Amino acid sequence: MLFDNYQPAEAFDEAFKKSGEFRAHYQAVVERLGDVTPEEFQSIQRTLSLSFLKQGVTFTVYNDDEGTERIFPFDPVPRVIPGDEWALLEKGLIQRIEALNLFLKDIYSDQKVIKDKIIPKETVYTAAHYRDELRGVKVPNDSYVQICGTDLIRDEKNGYLVLEDNCRCPSGVSYLLENRAAMKKVYPSLFQEMGVRPVDVYSDWLLEVLEGLSQPDNHEPVCVLLTPGVYNSAYFEHSFLASRMGIQIVEGRDLVVQNEVVYMKTTRGLERVDVIYRRIDDDFLDPEVFRKDSLLGVPGLMRAYRAGNVALANTVGTGVADDKVVYKYVPDFIKYYLDEEPILPNVETYLASEEKEMSHIMENLDQLVVKAANESGGYGMLVGPKSTKKEIEDFRGKIKESPRNYVAQPMISLSTHPTFCDDQISPRHIDLRPYILAGEETRVVPGGLTRVALNEGSIVVNSSQGGGSKDTWVLY
Predict the structure, then answer these.
(1) 345-370: per-residue pLDDT in tens?
(2) Is there a single domain that holds both residue 237 and residue 124?
(3) Which of 6, 113, 116, 343 is least surrounded by Cβ atoms within 10 Å, i.e. has the fewest?
(4) CA distance from start to end of the chain
(5) CB neighbours of 191 closer than 8 A, spacing ≥ 6?
(6) What backbone phi and psi angles, to 5 degrees, belong to 362?
(7) Are 138 and 276 contained in the same domain?
(8) What strands lie across the sheet with 223-226, from one edge to the other?
(9) What CATH number is given to the structural domain containing 400?
(10) Same domain, yes or no, for 333 and 358?
């Protein structure tokens, strides 16, 4: 009954073919949900929302007159990915993080990638999150990115494409884990019947990666999670992950540096800290080196870091790999460092800083998606085909004023997925954020956060822009 009137959109639909037939790997889901009435499904959704609210599964929207704390909307129609399809994604994601780690190591040491003219020097040096202070600093295991969330989209023509990498402090994994816990309560028998791979290994894998960064010693490594505090938009996730790993969650005021060693203040006195999983941006980490007015960080942290007495995950300066201008060169990094062809291609990207590409952007603003190089959360964007003439002209001025800060891409029709909206199942655009953990072994959590644009026709899936999420079922 639930799918009786479902009409796949023009875009590639993950669950249904254009003919209206469901795809083979969705059979059990369609059969199980097909017997549910819209009223019953609405009741399931309400129950889950209430459960999330009671558990504090929320996020914060800044500068919102309606209030800040919100539930991340959750849709109980799961996304299903067959095992062979996931194997290809996994291989491509591991290839990508390996190349990004080699790129980061290179630019903070010999800079061969610049000398060999793979990427212009100016592009690296003008990246908002490039940190010259890290040049020559030895980092544990030569690893810069331990936790990465890479955003993927799929369209009819090109299949899966990488939309962007998140190498600084990728968020959202707590919703992935909570979504799975919720779905197990709703459809307990389906998981075993379909052979869905578990995702609750994430916390164990993450702790293993963190402990692997500590220097060999006679004591068990002490890891902490450094948060900006309870008013941060992702504080729920910070406390959730710290609890799951069994480590302390701390703020900057809870740590002190003495003799280039980091200590945590406890009721028993000072306790040495070996590894910090930091959820604070570089700018606020250490007021001695970065922003002098920061009250969130730890004075002297970078001295301890340079001395090799504490490890940070992710390393300072990784944000240069998140820059949307640098993103264009990642396929070149894969060829340069690994001598391989990219398994997962980028979206075609034009740089406003390049004269020829600037001309193309200006002539086709009404057909392109324009993004600021270092914005996230769906901010700083122009979706040309869905914008007014005034919005387009305003953006034209911004691009001319600061060409280095903008890239443009063709508007990709993100794949759609059956989603319960307005008391019925309708197609809504989605993306996928898998989480990659790079330690002694690089592993991809078999799932990911499927984000969904709940507004009809919208391609902006970010929670701050009205998006929601789904559980992602990867099959054996």
Answers:
(1) 999 999 999 999 999 999 999 999 99
(2) yes
(3) 116
(4) 29
(5) 183, 184, 473
(6) -65, -35
(7) yes
(8) 248-250, 223-226, 275-278, 311-313
(9) 3.30.1490.270
(10) no
